[in-house]
Write a structure and sequence with these properties.
The protein is mostly beta strands. The chain has a single domain, classed as Thrombin, subunit H (Beta Barrel), CATH 2.40.10.220. Helix content is 10%, strand content 51%. The protein has a 6-stranded antiparallel β-barrel with strand order 2-3-4-7-6-5. A hairpin with a 5-residue loop joins strand 6 and strand 7. The termini are far apart.
């Protein structure tokens, strides 16, 4: 069994996602987040290594990050669960502010 490098926090924080080859932003809710990345359900699967920009707005503060899709899992609902790895890790204090503000 593989041990995770960072603790994951379950959350439903709303996020805006801009995917490099798609027009516009997509409004979604996170499933979980950690210092190294996040997970959310999308309306369809997207190729691994696809770059995306992420904006989390909470209590008047915005957190911007970029990352790439490292795994995807089709769901029975027709959606797809996507795992995103941040290009630059967020600090533990930034992560705690995001999770606790929501």
């Amino acid at each position: 069994m593989k041990t995770r490098k960072f603790t994951r926090y379950a959350t439903d924080i709303p996020v805006s996602i801009a995917i490099d080859h798609m027009i516009g932003e997509h409004q979604l809710c996170l499933k979980d987040i950690s210092q190294g990345g996040l997970c959310f359900n999308a309306h369809g699967c997207i190729d691994r290594n696809t770059h995306l920009d992420i904006m989390i707005s909470l209590s008047g503060q915005s957190y911007n990050a970029s990352g790439k899709i490292v795994w995807s899992q089709p769901l029975d609902t027709g959606q797809c669960q996507l795992g995103i790895m941040f290009e630059k890790q967020v600090t533990q204090s930034e992560l705690e502010k995001m999770v606790h503000r929501h």
